């Protein structure tokens, strides 16, 4: 077994206006980084289209219908100042969700030890009834529900190290006692949620806010003090990672001072948890990361660790 | 926030602007793209407030007295 890389050219058909940070070039940078010789042995898999009904694991039918109806025939439309739709957005969103669900199937079915889904738009800000923060469908939360309901797992953990709080994932998993959601993020910063007292309906959410300019040492200390013991105690049957790389010091949208080596480190620690409790089963999905060079280097560092640990 | 440069704000003005910036960020009605700008403004305001506090602290001085109990001058308070 090894590591699966799941992507699809439809990730490039979700187009945002010129100057928007969540842009097509992000996926091009990720794809380019993953063509290096060290990534030869990834199992490369095309992200299938999810059926729209599979999004019902996270969103009500009314939301899905409205989102679909808002997709323009030409040009781009704004759902809010951040969140845009182009003609290809619905297809891209369904591929992103389909990629995450396929990753869960592959990892739980023994086709791969772990998987990375390189798709956009990202998902972790999309709440059950609201698209926001560049996000349309809440891929990580839906994947967690799918693993619980479709595959019958008892416990699924979602760890989100994107620099912004994963409010959408939190919203959807708030009342799900079989899921643990853990998020590290800068505070104050968009979207404003993610305070430590937001704990979920079943004490199933752990928020670890970090002040601006926290560096790798601070991040690692908080992960070791709070995140890892909590994940270890939960003993997940599957670990899903919302892998945003915008806590990188070069990122234009936030002020944390992490580097690619810190993303490699946290990936190692998360693989330790997965090794201890669930045979190393990790599904990671791309969230943010808006400096193209930092994104490419960070994704490469993350996937390299997944490959080493998945071998 | 007012258009007044942060460097010219009084402590009270800067604190009020800082509180407004942090409240807006915590309320979550700032778009993701603008969040960083507001966050940077908040950091500038925080530095300005800290500078103003330091200046005020330096002015708090111990009054020195002569043998008859009359004030003769000031010396800075230790540890401020």
UniProtKB/TrEMBL annotation, chain A:
<comment type="similarity">
    <text>Belongs to the histone deacetylase family.</text>
</comment>
<dbReference type="InterPro" id="IPR023801">
    <property type="entry name" value="His_deacetylse_dom"/>
</dbReference>
<feature type="domain" description="Histone deacetylase">
    <location>
        <begin position="20"/>
        <end position="306"/>
    </location>
</feature>
<dbReference type="InterPro" id="IPR023696">
    <property type="entry name" value="Ureohydrolase_dom_sf"/>
</dbReference>
<dbReference type="Pfam" id="PF00850">
    <property type="entry name" value="Hist_deacetyl"/>
</dbReference>
<dbReference type="InterPro" id="IPR000286">
    <property type="entry name" value="HDACs"/>
</dbReference>
<dbReference type="InterPro" id="IPR037138">
    <property type="entry name" value="His_deacetylse_dom_sf"/>
</dbReference>
<dbReference type="GO" id="GO:0040029">
    <property type="term" value="P:epigenetic regulation of gene expression"/>
</dbReference>
<dbReference type="GO" id="GO:0004407">
    <property type="term" value="F:histone deacetylase activity"/>
</dbReference>
<protein>
    <submittedName>
        <fullName>Acetoin utilization deacetylase AcuC-like enzyme</fullName>
    </submittedName>
</protein>
Automatic annotation (TrEMBL), chain B:
<keyword id="KW-0963">Cytoplasm</keyword>
<comment type="subunit">
    <text>Heterooligomer composed of large and small subunits.</text>
</comment>
<dbReference type="GO" id="GO:0009318">
    <property type="term" value="C:exodeoxyribonuclease VII complex"/>
</dbReference>
<dbReference type="InterPro" id="IPR037004">
    <property type="entry name" value="Exonuc_VII_ssu_sf"/>
</dbReference>
<keyword id="KW-0378">Hydrolase</keyword>
<keyword id="KW-0175">Coiled coil</keyword>
<dbReference type="GO" id="GO:0008855">
    <property type="term" value="F:exodeoxyribonuclease VII activity"/>
</dbReference>
<comment type="function">
    <text>Bidirectionally degrades single-stranded DNA into large acid-insoluble oligonucleotides, which are then degraded further into small acid-soluble oligonucleotides.</text>
</comment>
<dbReference type="InterPro" id="IPR003761">
    <property type="entry name" value="Exonuc_VII_S"/>
</dbReference>
<dbReference type="Pfam" id="PF02609">
    <property type="entry name" value="Exonuc_VII_S"/>
</dbReference>
<protein>
    <recommendedName>
        <fullName>Exodeoxyribonuclease 7 small subunit</fullName>
        <ecNumber>3.1.11.6</ecNumber>
    </recommendedName>
</protein>
<keyword id="KW-0269">Exonuclease</keyword>
<dbReference type="GO" id="GO:0006308">
    <property type="term" value="P:DNA catabolic process"/>
</dbReference>
<keyword id="KW-0540">Nuclease</keyword>
<comment type="similarity">
    <text>Belongs to the XseB family.</text>
</comment>
<dbReference type="GO" id="GO:0005829">
    <property type="term" value="C:cytosol"/>
</dbReference>
<feature type="coiled-coil region">
    <location>
        <begin position="39"/>
        <end position="66"/>
    </location>
</feature>
């Amino acid at each position: 077994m090894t590591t699966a890389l799941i992507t699809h050219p439809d990730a490039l058909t979700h187009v945002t206006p010129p100057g928007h940070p969540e842009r097509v070039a992000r996926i091009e940078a990720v794809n380019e980084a993953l063509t290096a010789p060290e990534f030869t042995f990834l199992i490369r898999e095309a992200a299938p289209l999810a059926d729209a009904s599979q999004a019902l694991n996270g969103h009500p039918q009314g939301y899905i219908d409205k989102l679909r109806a808002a997709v323009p025939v030409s040009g781009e439309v704004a759902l809010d100042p951040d969140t845009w739709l182009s003609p290809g957005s619905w297809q891209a969103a369904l591929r992103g969700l389909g990629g995450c669900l396929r990753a869960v199937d592959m990892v739980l079915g023994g086709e791969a030890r772990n998987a990375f889904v390189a798709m956009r738009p990202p998902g972790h800000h999309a709440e059950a009834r609201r698209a926001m923060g560049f996000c349309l469908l809440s891929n990580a939360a839906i994947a967690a529900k799918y693993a619980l309901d479709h595959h019958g797992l008892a416990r699924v953990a979602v760890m989100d190290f994107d620099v912004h709080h994963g409010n959408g994932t939190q919203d959807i998993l708030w009342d799900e006692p079989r899921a643990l959601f853990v998020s590290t993020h800068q505070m104050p910063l968009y979207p404003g949620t993610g305070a430590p007292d937001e704990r979920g309906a079943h004490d199933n959410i752990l928020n670890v806010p970090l002040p601006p300019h926290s560096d790798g040492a601070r991040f690692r200390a908080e992960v070791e003090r709070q995140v890892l013991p909590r994940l270890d105690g939960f003993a997940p049957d599957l670990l899903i990672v919302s892998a945003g790389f915008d806590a990188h010091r070069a990122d234009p949208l936030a002020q944390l001072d992490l580097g690619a080596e810190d993303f490699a480190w946290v990936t190692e620690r998360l693989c330790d948890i997965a090794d201890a409790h669930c045979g190393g089963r990790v599904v990671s999905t791309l969230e943010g990361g808006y400096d193209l060079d930092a994104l490419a280097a960070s994704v490469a560092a993350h996937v390299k660790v997944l490959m080493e640990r998945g071998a | 926030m007012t258009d007044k440069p942060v460097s010219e704000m009084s402590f009270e003005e800067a604190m009020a602007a800082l509180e407004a910036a942090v409240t807006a960020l915590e309320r979550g009605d700032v778009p993701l793209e603008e969040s960083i700008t507001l966050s940077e403004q908040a950091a500038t305001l925080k530095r300005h407030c800290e500078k103003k506090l330091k200046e005020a602290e330096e002015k708090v001085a111990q009054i020195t007295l002569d043998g008859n109990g009359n004030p003769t001058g000031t010396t800075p308070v230790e540890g401020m």
